[in-house]
Each structure stands twice: as C-alpha cells, then as structure tokens.
Amino acid sequence: MKIVLAPDKFKGNMTSPEVCSIIREAFLSVMPEAEILALPMADGGEGTVDAVIAADGGEIRQVEVTGPLGGKVMARFGLCNHGKSGVLEMSSASGLALVPPEKLNPLRATTYGTGELIRTVLDCGVEELTIGIGGSATVDGGAGMAQALGYHLLDAEGEELESGAEFLANLAQIDASEADQRLFSTKIRVACDVTNPLLGPDGAATVYGPQKGATPEMVIALEQGLAVLANAWLERSMLESVEKPGDGAAGGLGAGLRAFCRAVPLSGAKLIIDMLELRKHLQNADLLITGEGCTDSQTESGKLCAEVAAAAKECSVPVLLLSGALKGDLSRFHQIFDCAFSTSSGAHASIAEAVRAGRSDLYFTALNIAKLINSGICKK
C-alpha cells in the first residue's frame, strides 16, 4: 500500500516534517510493509524553506541581516535544483516572531533585512527565486527592502529617507539608477495566500497593522505612508494599480515586490504543491493524508489542505484529513476530504494543554486509523 503524507504545520505546536514523522511512525508500527512517502507542505509562510529543501534535497544556509527594528538577526534561505533555484521566507529577516511583544512598532519596523536576504540569494547565482511573505512585523510596503537592493527613496530635498514606515509620508522621489539589475533578469515568484489590497478598509494598515502593534493613530499614519508610496509607484508606472489581490500582504510587501522586483504573486499553496511535484508522487498512491492545526470555514477558500485535497482528487486518490481541531459546519468538510478526523481528545482543559498533548494525540489517532485500514474494514 502506498500512502502519501502531505500535511501543513500544526501552528504553534508541530512543524510539517514533525507531523509527517509522527504519522509515519504510527502507520509503520501497524503496517511495516507499507510504502509511506513524506512530503511536508507549506503555503509560503513559516516552514516553506524547510518543505522545499526536504523535497528537493538542497541545502539551507544562514546569513546575518538587519532585523525588523535594526538589530542583527540570523536569517535562513534555501538553495535547490542544483543551485539554480532559491527560496526564502521574509519572516526569517523581518518577521513578527523576531520582535518581543512589548517592542512591536510597525512605524519603525523595516523590511531592510529582507532586501539583504534577497541580495544574498542573488549572490549565489540563482536563476529563479521563490519568496514566502507570511508573518511580517512590517507595514512599510517593501521600502526598506528596496533600499537594501539599491533603490534610493528621497524626500523633497533629495535626501535619503530613513528606514521605517513612519518616514514614507515624506517620500518625493524613487531613484532606481542603482537598483540591483539582477532583480530584472531573475524569475521571482511570491508565495502568498492573502488577498487583501494595499489600501483602504481591507488594506495592509487597517487589517494587519493592529496585529503588529499599531494603535488607531498608528494605523492612520501607516495608511498615509503607504498611500504616498503607492502614488510614487503609479506616477513612475512601476505599477498600474495597488488593488491586485495580495498587494496588502506582509504590510504591503506584496505590492512592493511587484513594484521594485517585478515579482509575480502566486497562490502559495498551489505554488508549493507544484514545486514539490505532489501530483507526480500521487501516481499509484492508495491514500493521501493531509493535516493542519485547525480546520474551519477558511480551509475551503484555497487554504493548503484544501488545495492538497484537490490535487489528490485530480489523481483519483482518496484524501484523509487529520486536524488538531474541526470547527464550524462539519458537513462541509466532506465536500473537500473523503474523511476528516480531529486529533484532539476533547478532554483537555485548555488550549495550552491541548498543545502539550498534540504529538501524543496525533500519534494515537494515526495509529487507530492505521489499525482500521490494516484490518480490512477500510478499503479503497
């Protein structure tokens, strides 16, 4: 029997490789002859580099870059396809997790380190680059990134702006004369499943600013700064609009990557599924098992597990979901998955307790499913 494991991470609990390892161990303890192929998945956010490198057999490197608030941090990136392809997560350089909660300040936070990380990957001679843009601490529209890549953002006196969203309102000119030309000869793709525009009530500042520490007054200032940056892009014909789905992702970095790097935004889930060649691995498979920390109504709206399930159904392979929690209208899950199981026993007194028991609960559920399949009760 061939079983393909293609789960997402269980956020805040287990990485996707850890999820694969636990399910694999449970199944092999009951079905030692089974062929189990582990393909840890990601959607462009946390875990993207690990997922791509684990599937390709490439290498992960580290480099010191500027963190969100100016201090130095160690960021990671991956090289694969014999060094021709690079993959990075902007959160590794400019992520929310790098800033203590009490120091969150999106007016000061910068994507400068993301630009340094991109430059480092380009120095490796890649022909294509995939950038995951989840989990940012920033709302600077990629301005800091652009400065690290050679762009000059100038005020009315021709002076370079300091890094940080609070200075964007003073932007008068974008000088691209020293921009890194490799940006325009390298195929750059953005893995993102956020569909927000850059500005307005559904934009980067209004929706995501508060999550990054913005007060109501800060949100207004962030919106104003992004609007000035957007006008500069439009005036220079760097973009035709800032209303493309995903422009508001990562504090406007989605739009910034399009404007400054000519990057192409793509569904993170679909992109990673294609990069990991999931459909090829599903050939002759008897079952696909996917999973995530929590499954709700958002899952059917293009989230990773739903996209994995869709790929499996294209290949006529049954799909089983193992989720830390199933919420909402449970009947809808059978429109996406052939079977859906919650791994939580329901007896945990708190979320923290459920997280602590997450690994053992996952193993126990996977073990019971393996026993059912092995008994012959469940047949393809």
Describe the fold and architecture:
The strands form three sheets. The protein has a six-stranded mixed sheet, with helices on both faces. Strands 2-1-11-12-13 form a five-stranded parallel sheet, with helices on both faces. The chain folds into two domains: 2-41 and 277-375, Rossmann fold, CATH 3.40.50; 48-269, Glycerate kinase, domain 2. With 380 residues, it is an alpha/beta fold. The radius of gyration is 22 Å and the shape is elongated. The protein is built from 13 helices and 13 strands. The longest helix has 20 residues, at 216-235.
Task: Tell me the layout of helices and strands.
Elements lengths: L1 E4 L10 H15 L4 E4 L9 H9 L2 E8 L5 E9 L4 E5 L1 H4 L17 H12 L4 E5 L10 H6 L3 E3 L18 E3 L11 E6 L11 H5 L7 H20 L13 H13 L2 E4 H8 L2 H4 L5 E6 L11 H11 L4 E5 L15 E4 L8 H6 L1 H18 L5
Parallel strand pairs: 1-2, 1-11, 5-6, 6-9, 9-10, 11-12, 12-13
Antiparallel strand pairs: 3-4, 4-5, 7-8
Helix pairs in contact: 1-13, 9-11
Top keywords for this entry?
380 residues, alpha/beta, Rossmann fold, Glycerate kinase, domain 2, 2 domains, six-stranded mixed beta sheet, five-stranded parallel beta sheet, 13 helices, 13 strands, 34% helix, elongated
Number of strands: 13
Alpha-beta classification: alpha/beta
Low-confidence segments, given as residue ranges, are: none
Strand content: 15-25%
Write down the domain tally. Answer: 2
From the 3D structure, determine the CATH topology of the largest domain.
Answer: Glycerate kinase, domain 2
Mind telling me the CATH superfamily name of the largest domain? Glycerate kinase, domain 2
Strand order of the largest sheet: 3-4-5-6-9-10
Radius of gyration (CA) equals 22 Å
Report the end-to-end length measured between terminal Cα atoms: 10 Å
Number of helices: 13
- The overall pLDDT, averaged over residues, is 93
Characterize the main sheet.
6 strands, mixed
The CATH architecture classification of the largest domain is: Alpha-Beta Complex
Order of helices and strands: EHEHEEEHHEHEEEHHHEHHEHEEHH
Taken from the alpha-carbon principal axes, the silhouette is elongated
Which CATH class of the largest domain? Alpha Beta
Helix content: 25-40%
